[in-house]
């Protein structure tokens, strides 16, 4: 009788162990899927950041040059205006 009881317990343990192994396999599959999804998102985010940086560089280079050109023109105009003495006055404030 003891042998039969031990066999029943072993069978029960084996069944529970199989369930644990099956659960681990399901978890592994889900972890793989999440990792793949995360990699895809990471690659997409990296692409977006790279694209944004390129656009910022274009804007900084193009706009920065334009601003510098406008500043140079304004400085030249101001120097010319101030050279005329009393005819033209450049005011710094709203007075």
Protein architecture, described:
The protein is rod-shaped. It starts with a helix and ends in a 12-residue tail after the last helix. It is mainly α. Helix content is 86%, strand content 0%.
Share of β-strand residues: under 5%
Give the overall shape.
rod-shaped
Number of contiguous helices: 1
Number of E-type strands = 0
SS class: mainly alpha
Average residue-wise pLDDT: 85
Task: Give the % helix.
Answer: over 70%
The whole-angstrom Rg is 38 Å
Largest sheet: none
Q: Kindly report how far apart the N and C termini lie.
A: 111 Å
The helix-strand sequence is H
Task: Give the low-confidence spans.
Answer: none
Provide a short characterization of the protein structure.
By secondary structure, this protein is mainly α. The protein has one helix at 2-83.
Give the SSE map.
Blueprint: H1 2-83
Notable characteristics:
mainly alpha; 95 residues
């Amino acid at each position: 009788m003891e042998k039969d009881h031990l066999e029943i317990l072993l069978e029960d343990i084996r069944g529970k162990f199989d369930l644990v192994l099956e659960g681990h396999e399901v978890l592994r599959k889900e972890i793989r899927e999440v990792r793949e999804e995360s990699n895809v998102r990471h690659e997409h985010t990296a692409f977006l950041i790279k694209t944004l940086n390129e656009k910022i560089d274009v804007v900084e280079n193009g706009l920065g040059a334009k601003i510098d050109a406008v500043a140079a023109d304004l400085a030249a105009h101001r120097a010319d205006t101030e050279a005329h003495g009393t005819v033209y006055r450049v005011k710094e404030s709203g007075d």
